[in-house]
Write a structure and sequence with these properties.
12% strand, Aminoglycoside 3'-phosphotransferase, Chain: A, domain 2, elongated, 2 domains, alpha+beta, single chain
Length: 312
Amino acid sequence: MPTAGHAGSMGSSVVGEPLWAVLIAPQLARFRLLVKVGDAPMTVDLTGWNKYVLLTEDRAFLFPRQANNVEWFTRELDTYRALEPIGLPVIPRVVGEWRDDAVYPFPFAAVTRLRGVRLSDASPVLDQLGRAMARWHDFAPPDLPGARPPAHLDTPDMRWLRRALDPETTRDAVTEAADRLGRRGQVGRWTELLETGARHRRVLVHGDLHEDQLLVVDGQLTGVLDWETARIDHPFWDFDLGEWGSGFWRRRRQDFSRLWSILWRAYALERGLDPDPAPLETAFRLRQALHLLDNDRDPSVVGTIDEHLDAI
């Protein structure tokens, strides 16, 4: 269930000073003085749904777009601070936080700027992503008050997946899926696979991983960005290729079994888990089939119900 498009997918132009989209001239002057950047060049990234980002040579300054984004901004900073002890170089570190109404009506912060570019196809670094993911999943989950999935995950198929990954409701969820999809004969096998997957303990998940959140330099994963959706949840949520853009699905959907296998095996090896990706793939293939049952989508992008079920 790919997103319709991610940051940077639509062309546009800006008239005037781009930085003024975030801070007008007097605010910008005060900001430069406060955070000690002087006249250093800055660029602006307006692609975030919840925040603006001003970039200097070594720092990324984060600004919540509006009042209801402050909660997500705070959670992102709390997550960076909680993860700092593991020393994972692909995760930004908080280097400053300010509240100055002469600059901005909400708090703002700086994190380390990680080098790299976003790839339209990040599949070559999935093994590295799996190993990095294992590091933050192995970390003792921090306390993140109010953390929850983003609103776009509150759909019938996502709610089904959440029940499928809960040991107390796995069997009922599988029975429902088999009945709705006309595959009653698969109940036993699907139940065995999903009960295996449901046994994984809850961990700290990023919660919104896709190609726009990853930075790469010369084939090396150098950054995993935008942790505002972090929460304590089932580990499978960080393997959801449904969060990746429609272009990725159009190009690589036929390779999903192999890509899930690469990602899961690298992850499982690092954590000492069963390397069989079948429970993971079964969970997401069934979720996708249920989504297609209720939604009319282009099969050249998202595939068909039979395609996903036959791949399990």
